[in-house]
Amino acid sequence: MTLLAATATTVPPESTQQAIGYPSLFLLVLIGALVPVVPTGALVSSAAVVAFHQTAPFSLALVFVTASTAAFLGDVTLYWLGRRGMGSKNGSRWLEAIRARAPEERLTQAQDRLAAHGVAVLVLSRLVPAGRLPVMLACLLAKWPMQRFARGNFPACLAWAVTYQLIGILGGSLFPEPWEGVVAAVALTLVISVAPSLWKRVRSAR
Q1: What pTM did the predictor assign?
Q2: If you ran DSSP here, which 8-state letter would residue 37 be given?
Q3: Local confidence band at 41 (pLDDT 50, 70, 90 cut-offs)
């Protein structure tokens, strides 16, 4: 009984987990949108696993709202910074960061698809690994106004949050312990992120 009591006191209650977890998720997804080195998809999936195992109502809904809002604000902020860089004589480090992560081949494809399909390409770009920044740069080069980008990016962020949350729910439903579901969700998101590049290498080798 003493060991169980000690364990219970060391595990934070759900209210404490939520008070820390949701602001942390928001901040990390926001930073990940601005500095695309944070695996935001894995973060959302992991948060969904934890929420799936909680008894508090609306936990999964709060994860969805938090993640999609942070992603939207991060994307819009990065696009605004990119527009400022496009209008500046010396550019900006944010614009250079977008260009550095948008290879010429991907940028050309994004421009062609954007010209042909418009906002639909922006929505799909959030679901394709490494597809967000080339399409964002294509929007910048096409001189899309902020309002047009924001209207297209809003459903893109909703679809992105739903997709990775479903991955987390799947991981949470398959395993009884939250940490097992987190491991499964993170592994699945990593597989999804590297699968296109591996397939492309295999095809090139053939």
Answers
A1: 0.79
A2: T
A3: confident
Give buried/exposed letters for 161-173 (b at 16+ CB in 10 A, else e): bebbbebbbbbbe
Q: How far is CA 67 from CA 78, 90, 95, 192, in A?
A: 16, 33, 24, 19
Burial group, residue 127, by CB count within 10 angstroms (0-12, 13-18, 19+): middle
| Cβ-contact 134, 106 below 8 angstroms | yes
Structure tokens belonging to residue 116: 């042909």
Token look-up 């993170």 returns 186
* Token pair in block for residue 8: 């219970």
DSSP secondary structure code for residue 98 in this structure: H
Residue 40 has pLDDT above 90, yes or no: no
Q: At what angle do helices 132-141 and 59-87 cross, to 10 degrees?
A: 40
Report long-range pairs for 10-18 (Cβ below 8 Å, ≥24 apart).
14/54, 14/55, 14/56, 15/56, 17/50, 17/54, 18/54, 18/56, 18/59, 18/62
